[in-house]
Specification:
This protein is mainly α. It has one domain (16-454): Amino acid/polyamine transporter I (Up-down Bundle), CATH 1.20.1740. The longest helix is centred in the last third of the chain and has 42 residues, at 413-454. Strand 2 (124-125) and strand 3 (131-132) form a beta hairpin. Residues 253-258 have low confidence and may be disordered. It contains 18 helices and 4 strands. Helices cover 75% and strands 2% of the residues. The strands form 2 sheets. Strands 1-4 form a two-stranded parallel sheet. It has a two-stranded antiparallel sheet with strand order 2-3. The termini are far apart.
Length: 483
């Protein structure tokens, strides 16, 4: 049995080496830069517009509002990656990994706009004033490749329903053990009890819970992080210098380790950045597709989801990084890794209650990630089986999700993170290829939205203006209309 586990780990490590070392980093950054150039740096020019749209985002017309869709995607984004993931990136890649997380998020905002806009354009009615969609839908409808769409859907179900939910449960269990000395099995059992009624309640219940919990938990965490920064304001310039110097290996240059140090910062920063903000991975479009947008145009949800990447990485992850780096050289020797490093760092700043605060924060962050991850899987099971035939499969999926939450609470950190990296990488490869191929449509939708907005009109989507969408748009989701 032990040899089988070692063999599986070797296989996972080899897959990660191929995907992350040779393919995904270049494709991820390259696609983000391409989308940034082709949209004229949309993430900078429309930065204020993202927040303007947020004011109307609670209007859902009886369905799932843009705000609820954003909260669902943030529930998946804001979790382990923001507290444990940042700590792991700094532990293995040094403070410079934070810089590459920033760069991943900056170009990832344009990527998120493209994938979320496509998800809205190809969404389908669910018959209850809500919608379903995502990469599986736009791969089949836009590229005509159902086999590739099914492959993506399977990767997502494995990655989010199983691997990522194990990661979230693992971080909750470690944090609770550090703060309260609660055994992992007890944490896992409690999680199963709380999660069960929510995931069995379906997408509407998940959206409502996310809409209530996510804004509160994010605000509380940011207030604490800003307090830590205010306490150490004089050290802030030094922290920024440390991040920039470490990002390019300048601190190690004298020792001849420049290339290796920079590579470690780059790889760990991009891996953890992608895990946290999920831009280009193909997960957030599943939430984006469920929304009734305001204005009634696919690009509107693209802007809203672009804001999600900004809030996740450039705001919340930066807050965690500041807490850890300001605490000093904690990530050395036999110091704790993962969520426990964040707890120790905060405790060094504010006292022992910092460990308890992080435990409660990760409980909320990771808990909402579990239910949002489940929602992504449900959407893709319905895609494969069809809404009417999906009930038996959904029952099995729900039981498997609960089982993996329990397993993750008692499993080792390294094995789970490695498996999550592999499944995430496979998803991202498929999705990035698809959105690059479909990007001309996303650019056309952006220009259509921009043209109407510049003319002083509220943008409205008319599918008949886009020949590439002929016969591919669900008329119940997007009725043909003209001004």
């Amino acid at each position: 049995m032990h040899s089988l586990l070692d063999g599986f780990q070797d296989l996972v490590n080899a897959g990660n080496g191929l995907i992350w070392g040779s393919l995904l980093i270049y494709l991820l950054l390259g696609a983000g830069l391409f989308f940034t150039v082709m949209t004229g740096a949309i993430q900078l020019r429309y930065f204020g517009h993202m927040f303007a749209l947020l004011k109307r985002s609670r209007e859902g017309g009886g369905g799932i509002s843009s705000f609820q869709a954003l909260s669902t995607s943030l529930a998946a984004r804001v979790g382990t990656g923001n507290l444990a993931g940042v700590a792991i990136a700094i532990y293995f890649g040094g403070p410079g990994a934070v810089f590459w997380m920033w760069m991943t998020a900056l170009v990832g905002m344009a990527t998120s706009f493209v994938e979320s806009t496509l998800a809205q354009a190809y969404k389908v009615s669910h018959g209850d004033a809500t919608y379903r969609g995502g990469p599986a839908y736009y791969i089949e409808k836009g590229l005509g490749q159902r086999w590739l769409a099914i492959l993506f859907a399977i990767c997502l179900i494995i990655a989010f329903g199983l691997a990522f939910n194990s990661v979230q449960a693992n971080s909750i269990a470690q944090a609770m053990e550090q703060a309260f000395d609660v055994p992992g099995w007890a944490v896992g059992l409690a999680l199963v009890v709380v999660v069960t009624p929510i995931i069995f309640g379906g997408m509407r219940t998940i959206a409502r819970v996310a809409g209530m919990v996510v804004p509160v938990m994010a605000l509380l965490y940011l207030v604490l992080a800003l307090g830590v920064v205010a306490m150490n304001l004089s050290e802030l310039p030094g922290v920024i210098r440390t991040i920039l110097a470490s990002a390019f290996g300048l601190e190690q240059a004298a020792g001849g380790a420049l290339g290796y140090a920079m590579a470690q910062a780059l790889i760990n920063g991009i891996q953890r950045g992608l895990f946290s903000n999920e831009a280009g991975m193909g997960s957030a479009p599943n939430a984006a597709a469920t929304a009734t947008t305001q204005p009634n145009h696919p690009a509107a949800q693209g802007f809203i989801q672009m804001l999600g990447v900004f809030l996740d990485t450039l705001v919340i992850c930066t807050a965690t990084a500041a807490i850890i780096i300001l605490a000093g050289p904690l990530a050395e020797g036999d110091a704790p890794n993962g969520i426990q490093l964040t707890q120790v760092a905060l405790s060094a700043q504010v006292g022992e209650w910092g460990s308890v605060f992080i435990a409660l924060a990760i409980l909320l962050f990771a808990f909402t990630s579990v239910i949002a991850n489940y929602a992504y899987g449900e959407s893709n099971i319905e895609y494969i089986a069809g809404p009417r035939r999906a009930r038996p499969a959904l029952l099995l999926y729900r039981l498997a999700v609960l089982a993996m939450v329990m397993v993750g609470s008692v499993a080792s950190l390294g094995a789970i993170w490695n498996f999550a990296d592999l499944s995430m990488g496979m998803m991202a490869l498929i999705n990035l290829v698809a959105i690059l191929a479909l990007s001309p449509l996303a650019f056309a939708l952006f220009r259509d939205y921009d043209r109407q907005r510049r003319a002083g009109e509220e943008p409205v989507f008319d599918p008949s203006r886009f020949p590439k969408l002929a016969g591919k748009v669900d008329p119940e989701a997007w009725p043909a209309r003209r001004r």
